[in-house]
Amino acid sequence: MYNNLGNALARKGRLREAAVQYNNAVLLQPGYAEAYNNLGMVSSLRGDDREAVKFYKKALHFRPAFVKAHFNMGVSYVALRQLDDAVYHYKEAIKIKPDFVAAYNNVGIVYSMKKDYGSAIIFYQKALQLYPGFEIAKSNLRIAQQEQAIKNK
Q1: Which of 34, 56, 86, 136 has the maximal Cβ count within 10 Å?
Q2: What predicted TM-score, i.e. pTM, was given to this entire model?
Q3: DSSP letter at 29?
């Protein structure tokens, strides 16, 4: 109930009120991974990715194979410029959900940020293999291929 109310408030942009409801949810049910994940998302949306990571870790403590928490943790780690940690969590999400197109794309983005264009290309291609119409991955792939060509000159 509290988690659902938090979701409704978050959709309306009422993040502080949403966080109160998510906290109520975990007070009633301390192992409620979804509510911890939602607290992390609210923290991230409010610009506090360090706090978000703490909540995602709690979510994963209670549900280690929680795909959304791994993915969201990757997003927060990118914001914190902890790129190796981001790759790890995106790849964990892929292990759990091998057709998670956005996770493949995000691994590619992180590898591009690290200027490892060869690895980035592999992950963009995998995203496009799963979803050929993914325009963002197409664009990212073209850029990575151009950067790789420049790097190889």
Answers
A1: 56
A2: 0.93
A3: S
Reduced to 3 states (helix: H, G, I; strand: E, B; else coil), residue 151 is helix
CA-CA distance, 116 to 122, in Å (whole number)?
10
What pLDDT was estimated at residue 37?
97
The SS3 assignment for 12 reads coil
In the chain, the largest separation of any two C-alpha atoms, in whole Å, equals 60
User: What are 80's two structure tokens?
Assistant: 């914190």
Angle CA 93–125–49, to nearest 5: 40
Give residue-wise pLDDT tens across range 77-111: 999 999 999 999 999 999 999 999 999 999 999 99
DSSP conformation letters of 64-130: TT-HHHHHHHHHHHHHTT-HHHHHHHHHHHHHH-TT-HHHHHHHHHHHHHTT-HHHHHHHHHHHHHH
CA distance 81 to 87: 11
Pair 111, 120: CB distance under 8 Å: yes
Whole-number Å distance between alpha carbons of 56 and 53: 5
Q: Does pLDDT of 148 surpass 90?
A: yes
